[in-house]
Specification:
heterodimer; A: mainly alpha; ABC transporter involved in vitamin B12 uptake, BtuC; two-stranded antiparallel ribbon; B: alpha/beta; Rossmann fold; four-stranded antiparallel β-sheet
């Protein structure tokens, strides 16, 4: 009898958690929408957030699922961007460029995994070694140049921008004409991110994914189950950094150029996305957590754009503003905990 | 079945801190044997397990299991045929994953991983039956995060996971030592049930003389990296905890055997035993 009751309560628990996640998501969308319209934030921030979203997912996989302190994203991202730019300049299609960028990102992840596994160098140091070397690799891929412009080349966006603008003007008149590129980015990148999340979710819920998730929590147990946990670490890092490479190629197509310093500080941004997503949406299941990482990156970009427009700052201030947004994201939950503890103490002394 | 042939293990070889944890140990475990291993701290019990499971490397000697020479197999490969339960309940299961996911992972045991779904509908009844046998009510909580379970519950799930796909050999490393007496009792009952049902070769380390005499068909006592007694057959059935304590005394290691005497009343954790041993040496 009692066991039956506990099952029932657990069933409704998981249902309630799903509902509360949806509710939080809706609330977040409304709040963000209000802030954007009142604060006069350009919707370009959403497109940019979607471009970087998969780098956030990369950081989520390495830090949260693998429990591996991995900075490789800083190297995999510009490598993906460089590969994409060089392919597009040489006339390959943007879709192929995305795929090859994923593969190169994955190889960067594999390099970190090998440094970690073969030389027993801790993840943090291993990834610093790899991103140091990756800088040169990026330059080599770009043929020794530090910047490759994509002006006049066919990218994912430029290919559709003319017909999309025509369609937009035809449907909604001239009002949305100026936003057509931004809207197109949101639709295209949103599509890519959704497809990637679906594939990733399917992977995480496969036997391989289960072993990867277990490795991050308890490698000893994975070994004791007869699975080579090193392979799982390498697999996880490859998938994660492949996504960083993919994200890099999206951003390069968005910006219209590839640059060797594109990955600078990306790890901080990715961490911020993961934490913002967790604080705001409190995800429980693997699928929810993946969505939260994407949402976190969107909130990061939108709030940064909002600060820029509200304070009317020059674009050169971007790194400081980024750092402060990250600080706010990391610090707020802790400050809140301290505030609660303080109130508790205050109540006790009275 | 399991054959250890003159296996030695040395830690920190070539330095001042060189420790010869196992000294040319030979051991043969037959199909279906249940062997209990006792001995004081530092006797080499855990090293013996480590070298069988692949966590420690043998400096010399050979290890065969079922005719395969597995002296140079890596740990994960040996785990495909060896089930293990650790002293620390946190080591055997994976927190953050549900009971169902943990069991699903154990069900893959020894097979190649694939892109099939991680939890399979047709395995649910199998998991429920295995859990129901323990009468802990866990069969109704398949979707509970393992991190929310008590040490005893986690240890019983580890036992199921280690035997879900029948291993050739089951290694139990003081798997009740970190539990309260009640939970320890339950785990011992479960262990006996599993060993009887699957008739698999089992080697169990224990600190409790009572357990050593209650369970299994053969007792091995280790001392300073060597097997000093190997009691089986008729002699084993007449064995009582006090016999074992006498034998301990005959080793001339009075200080540690004091702690072992206390060990017979129930199960003590390693920490308790060390504390007791040092307390008794202070009193003297």
């Amino acid at each position: 009898m009692s066991s039956q009751a506990s099952t029932a309560s657990q069933g409704s628990d998981s249902l309630a958690s799903r509902h509360s996640f949806l509710l939080r998501g809706l609330l977040l969308i409304i709040v963000v929408g209000v802030v954007m319209s009142l604060g006069n934030v350009n919707i370009g921030a959403v497109g940019q957030g979607l471009g970087y979203a998969l780098a956030g997912v990369c950081v989520f996989i390495t830090f949260r699922i693998l429990g591996f302190v991995d900075l490789t994203v800083d190297g995999a991202f510009p490598i993906g961007g460089a590969v994409c730019a060089i392919l597009i300049v040489n006339g390959s299609s943007p879709e192929v460029a995305l795929l090859v960028a994923f593969i190169f990102g994955a190889l960067t992840g594999l390099a970190t995994a090998l440094v970690d596994i073969l030389f027993k160098i801790e993840g943090l140091l291993a990834s610093i070694i790899v991103i140091t070397g990756a800088y040169t690799v990026t330059l080599r891929i770009m043929g020794g140049r530090s910047n490759i412009p994509l002006l006049g080349q066919e990218t994912l966006i430029s290919r559709h921008s003319r017909p999309f603008r025509a369609w937009l003007v035809e449907q909604f008149g001239d009002g949305l004409k100026r936003q057509s590129t931004n809207l197109l980015e949101i639709i295209l990148f949103g599509g890519v991110v959704i497809v990637v999340l679906v594939i990733l979710y399917w992977f995480m819920r496969s036997e391989f994914g289960l072993a990867v998730r277990a490795t991050g929590k308890n490698a000893q147990m994975v070994r004791a189950t007869g699975i080579n946990h090193y392979v799982m670490i390498a697999l996880g890092l490859m998938v994660a950094n492949g996504l960083a490479g993919l994200s890099g190629s999206l951003v390069v197509q968005q910006f219209g150029f590839a640059d060797v310093s594109l990955g600078f500080g990306l790890i901080v941004r990715g961490l911020a996305a993961v934490i913002i997503g967790e604080v705001l949406l409190r995800p429980k299941s693997t699928g929810q957590r993946l969505i939260a990482a994407v949402a976190g990156m969107l909130v990061f970009d939108i709030s940064r754009a909002w600060i820029f427009s509200a304070l009317d700052l020059p674009t050169t201030d971007i790194q400081l503003v980024s750092a402060l947004v990250v600080l706010a994201a990391l610090g707020t939950p802790r400050l809140y905990e301290r505030y609660k503890a303080f109130r508790q103490r205050f109540a006790n002394t009275r | 079945m399991l054959e250890l042939d003159n296996v030695s293990v040395t830690f920190n070889a070539g330095t001042n801190n060189e420790v010869r944890a196992l000294k040319e140990v030979s051991l043969s475990v037959e199909e279906g044997d249940f062997v209990t291993v006792i001995g004081s701290n530092g006797a080499g019990k855990s090293t013996l397990f480590g070298v069988i499971a692949g966590a420690a490397t043998a400096a010399s000697g050979q290890i065969h299991l079922d005719g395969h020479n597995m002296t140079h197999w890596p740990e994960y490969k040996r785990s495909q045929v060896i089930g293990r339960v650790f002293q620390d309940p946190r080591l055997g299961t994976c927190p953050g994953l549900t009971i169902r996911e943990n069991l699903s992972l154990a069900a893959i045991h020894g097979r190649r991983l694939g892109l099939r779904r991680d939890v399979k509908q047709d395995q649910e009844q199998w998991f429920r039956d295995e859990l129901a046998r323990q009468q802990l009510g866990l069969e109704e909580r398949l979707d509970t995060d393992v991190a929310l379970l008590s040490g005893g519950q986690r240890q019983s799930i580890t036992l199921i996971m280690a035997t879900l796909v029948k291993p050739k050999l089951l290694l139990l490393d003081e798997h009740t030592a970190a539990l309260d007496p009640n939970a320890a009792e339950q785990i011992i009952t479960l262990t006996r049930d599993l060993a009887d049902r699957h008739e698999m070769s089992t080697v169990m380390i224990t600190h409790s003389m009572q357990q050593a005499c209650d369970l299994g068909s053969r007792v091995i006592m280790m001392h300073q990296g060597e097997i000093v007694f190997d009691i089986s057959g008729r002699e084993r059935y007449q064995l009582t905890p006090s016999d074992l304590i006498d034998r301990f005394h005959s080793l001339g290691d009075a200080e540690l055997s004091d702690a072992q005497i206390l060990g017979q009343t129930g199960s003590f954790s390693q920490k308790d035993l060390t504390a007791l041993a040092s307390a008794s040496s202070r009193n003297r």
